[in-house]
Amino acid sequence: MFEIHPDTEELDRFLRNALQPGSTARNGQVVRHLLAECDACWIYLNALGWNRARIDRLLQISNWEAPEQRVPVVGNGLSYDRAFLKTEKTLSAFFGLDLPLDQPIEILLAELAALPTLDQIEVVKREHRFAKPQIVRKLVEQSQATRYRDPNEMLHLADLARLVSEACSPTSTGNELRLADLRTRAWGQSGNALRVSGRLRDAETTYTTAQRYRELGTGDPALRAWLIEKITSLHIFQGRLESAFALSEEAGQIYRELGETHLLASTLVQKAIVSLYAGDTESGVRILNQAIPLIDHEEDPHLLLAACHNLVRAYIDLDRPEQALAIYSEARPLYREFGENTILLRAGWQEGQLLRDLGHLRAAEEALIRARRGFVERDLAYEVALVSLDLAAVYVKLRLVEELKETVAMTVPIFRSLRVGRETLGSLLQLQQVAGQEQQALELIRLLTAKIEPRPAKGSAETR
């Protein structure tokens, strides 16, 4: 055990000012003390909000050096110098502090929100007083909060966060590594907003930038897992299911090590969605039933709704509509709890599917038309295309040939906007020709649904 125990004032000074000149020797002693498992110091750190598992993972030498360069952190008779030097630098960067704001953040954000959209972009580019990490984090938070209500606003707020992060300096965030973490968060949210808006290629490019910033940052494991979750959602939409499954496993392992049970549940829901897309519906159901008890409803009610929503979808796919209806009925208070338009649209979409599978075709038609109209108003082309195919299936079962042909005609420009292949577009047009042949038409609709990329499951709800 390190002989000199740092008092709370000394430990606090290390956390706040570890990068100041003349502190290196004492910092090394503090790091050695922490690595020697001092319970009193860890109790103090926990009281300050620093999760022990998160810091333990941050201290792993494997995060920074190639295998042949690693120096063991523990063991008898080994040289610790290089390991402690790297650990000290990483801890110092991780515990850096933002510069305080000159004005309350509420005033700055209110001033920004009062401007027209284009002016907001110009202001954050031009005026340095907005170049604050606190504003970046708040814009990221606001962007994520609008993901179900207004995808365009989500993207705009994420773009503002990205622009502000690029205007921030190392001084404003405490150091260069924390600045890289901040930019990781902003670019990652921008990628997520692009993905929600259906701009998948732009999302992939943006995530590449976010990953590059993360590699330059502190190595914060929670940030790494957060970004992996975002990229997982993109891979799901792109139909890269094997990659998506592996990424969700990786993020889940990090959360498991950090003791973040609720966040682990989020990765389990992602894994279940991958299984549903891959056609392994039974596995999807099993994983969802594992995830649901781990979800903290108070912390993230959206995640619980996503899990229930996809469980309903799974039972629909298993041709067990009665069980799906029972779960849907239990989840209806969750939908009403939010009252957010996109969530309600997805609920209406799913209700239409259930009514169709239960044989209530006219009621299904009404529900699906309402859902399609809502998705059209929000420019969500993939959802419009998939709801239209569900509606087409209803018309096939009702033997309403003219309504089916009209639905196909309305869907053709949507398919073109999605840049589907000629074969897929040809199959859609062929649907008009087989409108009066129920079995053949339903099979063609099933094939068309499977061909659309990316692959948002019919009526599925996202986790993040």
Structure characterization notes:
With 464 residues, this protein is mainly alpha-helical. Among the domains are: 8-94, no CATH class; 105-219; 368-464. Helix content is 72%, strand content 0%. It contains 24 helices and no strands. It has helices spanning 8-17, 24-35, 39-47, 52-58, 81-94, 105-113, 117-126, 133-145, 151-167, 170-173, 176-196, 200-215, 221-237, 241-258, 261-277, 281-291, 301-317, 321-338, 341-357, 361-377, 381-398, 401-417, 422-433, 438-451. Helix 11 runs parallel beside helix 13 (221-237) and helix 13 (221-237) runs antiparallel to helix 14 (241-258). The longest helix is centred in the middle third of the chain and has 21 residues, at 176-196. The radius of gyration is 26 Å and the shape is globular. The two termini are 43 Å apart. Mean pLDDT is 82; it is low at 18-22, 61-80 and 453-460.
Secondary-structure element string? HHHHHHHHHHHHHHHHHHHHHHHH
Separation of termini?
43 Å
The main sheet comes to: none
Q: Low-confidence parts lasting 5 or more residues at pLDDT below 50?
A: 18-22, 61-80, 453-460
Count every helix, treating DSSP H or I runs of 4 or more residues as helices.
24
The geometry reads as globular
**What's the rounded overall pLDDT mean?**
82
Q: Into which percent range does the helicity of residues fall?
A: over 70%
Strand content: under 5%
In short:
The chain is an all-alpha fold. It has 24 helices and no strands.
